[in-house]
Design brief:
- The chain has about 270 residues and is mostly helical.
- The protein has one domain: Farnesyl Diphosphate Synthase (Orthogonal Bundle), CATH 1.10.600.
- It has a two-stranded antiparallel sheet.
- A hairpin with a 2-residue loop joins strand 1 and strand 2.
- Helix 4 packs antiparallel against helix 6 and helix 11 packs antiparallel against helix 12.
Length: about 270
């Protein structure tokens, strides 16, 4: 894994250029991880096509922001950032499939199942999920107990009690589940995984901080999704309130808005989404 020099950004606000540097770092590490865990084939082409074709990289950025705010092991964070982006890419491939949302376009290019055979798209999503867990399990600098905690968190947040359950509710008949629960499961749970996995790398983790990060992640995720899907004034108001809640939880964690990168990433995300 390639690690960016964070010595200057730990105590100063991230600029837009810093965000780009982190995104470039994620893309480089993600490309190397795909190369390491796959064999040259059409399947690898589909994996690369779907995971290295742009995107905000908000989930990995959350990992790096937490690392800066809580002085976490940077090499382990590199691995966690790759893992969460693999899960995100997997979820998008499957979300676009004809049996689900049936979307032909993703990030201004044909969806994976339109660019490749549908079976290849399904397998590419499955492979990305596998790469996420393999990356964590094989990280040589992450202690075994931290690896196990990260695997437990990621499997819970993205499995049948988290992201996948949210997707199931989203595809179910109307009124099966309220929209906030769908957003909390389908979107916010992966944000929760980003932060709680990252915080497990702390040398002396505090349960209260872990809980605070989970609460922040839920509000951040709800704000992100509602503003991303905003259809009317009510959605915008809901997003604004959720962002306000997110700032409140960061205040509860004792983070200073002037040098907290989680705080500044929230501001950055809110501005980009507006």
């Amino acid at each position: 894994m390639t690690t960016i020099n964070r010595s200057t950004s730990i105590t100063s606000p991230m600029s837009n250029m810093n965000w780009k540097a982190y995104r470039d770092q994620v893309d480089l590490n993600l490309s190397r991880s795909i190369q390491q865990h796959t064999t040259q084939s059409t399947l690898q082409d589909a994996i690369r096509y779907s995971s290295l074709n742009g995107g905000k990289r908000i989930r990995p950025l959350l990992c790096y922001a937490a690392a800066n705010d809580f002085d976490l092991n940077s090499t382990s964070i590199d691995t966690i950032a790759v893992a969460v982006e693999c899960i995100h890419a997997f979820s998008l491939i499957h979300d676009d499939l004809p049996a689900m949302d049936n979307d032909d376009w993703r990030r201004n290019q044909p969806s994976c199942h339109k660019q490749f055979p549908e079976y290849t798209a399904i397998l590419a999503g499955n492979a990305l999920q596998s790469i996420a867990f393999s990356s964590i399990a094989q990280c040589p600098v992450t202690p075994l107990d931290v690896q196990m905690q990260c695997i437990r968190i990621l499997s819970y947040c993205t499995g049948a009690q988290g992201l996948l359950l949210g997707q199931n509710y989203d595809l179910s008949p109307p009124n099966t589940c309220d929209q906030q629960t769908i957003d909390r499961l389908k979107t916010a749970k992966l944000f929760e995984a980003c932060l709680t996995m990252s915080y497990t790398c702390h040398t002396n983790p505090c349960p209260t901080v872990q809980q605070g990060l989970s609460r922040f992640a839920e509000s951040f995720g709800l704000a992100f999704q509602r503003q991303d899907d905003a259809m009317d004034q009510e959605d915008n108001l809901t997003a604004t309130q959720a962002f306000s809640d997110a700032y409140h939880y960061l205040d509860d964690l004792g983070l200073n808005p002037n040098n907290s990168q989680l705080y500044q990433l929230t501001q950055y995300t809110q501005a980009r989404q507006s």
